[in-house]
Amino acid sequence: MTKGMYHYLRQAWKKPDQKTLRERMISWRSSPAFTKVEKPLRLDRARALGYKAKKGFVVVRVRLMRGGHKRPRPNKGRRGKRLHTRKNLIMNYRWIAEQRAARKYRNLEVLNSYLIGKDGIYYFYEVILVDPERPEIKNDSTISWIGKPENRGRVFRGLTSAAKKARGLRKEKIE
Q1: d(CA 129, CA 113)
Q2: Cβ-count burial of 119 within 10 angstroms (0-12 exposed, 13-18 middle, 19+ buried)?
Q3: For the chain (length 175 residues), average pLDDT per consecutive 10?
Q4: CA 16, CA 80: separation in Å to the nearest integer?
Q5: Shortest CA distance to 101 belongs to which of 60, 67, 57?
Q6: What is the pLDDT of residue 142?
Q7: Cα–Cα dist 87/68, whole Å
Q8: Cα–Cα distance, 50 to 163 (Å, whole number)
Q9: Structure pTM?
Q10: Residue 30 Cα distances to 24, 34, 50, 58, 63, angstroms
Q11: What is the dihedral of CA 47, 109, 147, 52, to 10 degrees?
Q12: H, E, C per residue of the chain
């Protein structure tokens, strides 16, 4: 059986070339936290998550600082009983990246996202955003659902894939 291009792209990302990825991340570190990119870096992953190379789809690289999910201890203004800091943030980094991208690009709706790399300081994600007002999106039967009013702000309501995973809504496979 012959294998297609996306199969080999997927295989290449399982063991990426460390030197190339390292050089990319060095340049990404000095770039802004949100960078609009021409084409997705992981084309196979983006296509699997719903990306299409047409007008209305925007891919944004988001840079996030690693660490800091522990809540800071309050330093004043409450009694001792309320000073507990045992809870950690439930949201995962991918969900945080999606929310930040949605806040930056308010007219676009978050479709999905994926990890493209991490180093000692940062996580780097690519977030796929869709413009629900464009006629190319409205006329496409596979993605037109995102323009409906009930799907506005879906990333803030925990309806993206990363958010559902963080909320524990993934179904477990029973074998």
Answers
A1: 9
A2: middle
A3: 90 90 94 95 93 95 89 83 79 94 95 94 96 94 93 93 91 71
A4: 50
A5: 60
A6: 93
A7: 12
A8: 17
A9: 0.88
A10: 11, 11, 29, 22, 10
A11: -20
A12: CCCCHHHHHHHHHHCCCHHHHHHHHHHHHHCCCEEEECCCCCHHHHHHCCCCCCCCEEEEEEEEECCCCECCCCCCCCCHHHCCCCCECCCCHHHHHHHHHHHHCCCCEEEEEEEEEECCCEEEEEEEEECCCCHHHHCCCCCHHHHCHHHCCCCCCCCCHHHHHHCCCCCCCCC
Both tokens of 59, joined, read 């891919």
The one-letter code for the residue type at 32 is P
| Both tokens assigned to 62 | 């988001």
- Tell me the two tokens of residue 2: 């012959």
